[in-house]
UniProtKB/TrEMBL annotation:
The keyword Cell inner membrane does not apply. This is Small ribosomal subunit protein mS26. Belongs to the mitochondrion-specific ribosomal protein mS26 family. Keywords: Mitochondrion, Ribonucleoprotein, Ribosomal protein, Transit peptide. It comes from Zosterops lateralis melanops. Residues 1-31 are annotated as: Disordered.
Length: 99
């Protein structure tokens, strides 16, 4: 009977050790998942912040009712001619004269 009690105690100690290791492994995995999620969120926020800054920079060139007259004058002062032909290499072959 004493041997059986010793064996039961030994088996109980092994079970407790295995449960402790599994619990530590589970905590470690949860921590890794949380860290990975935090990194993803940080990268996402950085990308969105960069996108917002880019949109703010682009918004400086928007035509608004306040700057409409100035933009019209600027376009009239600097006419652009987009009527031209290009070859396969992208060079301008023929351009019409602005009237």
């Amino acid at each position: 009977m004493a041997w059986n009690d010793e064996e039961n105690a030994r088996q109980q100690a092994r079970r407790e050790e295995r449960a402790r290791r599994e619990e530590e492994e589970q905590k470690r995995r949860k921590l890794e998942v949380a860290e990975k999620q935090a990194r993803k969120m940080k990268a996402f926020l950085e990308e969105k912040e960069k996108e917002v800054l880019q949109l703010q920079e682009e918004a400086k060139n928007f035509i608004t009712p306040e700057n409409l007259e100035a933009r019209i004058e600027e376009c009239l002062d600097n006419p652009q001619n987009y009527n031209f032909a290009i070859d396969k290499d992208g060079r301008i072959v023929k351009r019409t004269v602005l009237s």
